[in-house]
Amino acid sequence: MQQDPDQPEGKDEKRTFSAQKSLGQKYLGFRLDDEIFGFELLSVREIIRMTDITHIPRSPAFIRGIINLRGKIIPVVDLRKKFCLPARDDTDVTCIIVVDIGNIETGVVVDRVAQVLSFESNDIEESPCFSGKHETDYILGIGKRDNKVVVLLDVAKIMAADEIDELVNHVKGMQSKTGT
After folding, report:
1. Domains of the chain by range and CATH?
2. pLDDT tens across 41-51, in order?
């Protein structure tokens, strides 16, 4: 296979492609504790205020439950739990960002939404590699803004494939029971 001249030698092709694809795009910035993260703006369907969430027994720990959003059952992921952050009570600025994960509209609980962020290509670094190859696959890149960093997330890769399958099965089971 011929090496792409634009591709750095020895780099993971998918990670580099994802980082290049995201360069210069807009992101919805949000906070978990004091850290700023961002989802690609095009993956965001809407932002809603925190609402009552119905817990689903025997669901993964990071699934907070489900909500009824205008007649549609939406699973809700607690990003704090998914990222192994300490639990925190919801506040008046805690909200749910509705995104598309694996063709399932999914709510993601965040501490608060910050703002829409735009980055030039030279303001985004590739995602770091730590001990395991797949540990940071969900990071599109690291945005640099005002001497701070913004972790730019690939919403479709926040959850592993088996977790998405489990989420899809939970939602399909709930929808068949409720007829939605």
Report:
1. 13-178 (2.40.50.180)
2. 999 999 999 99
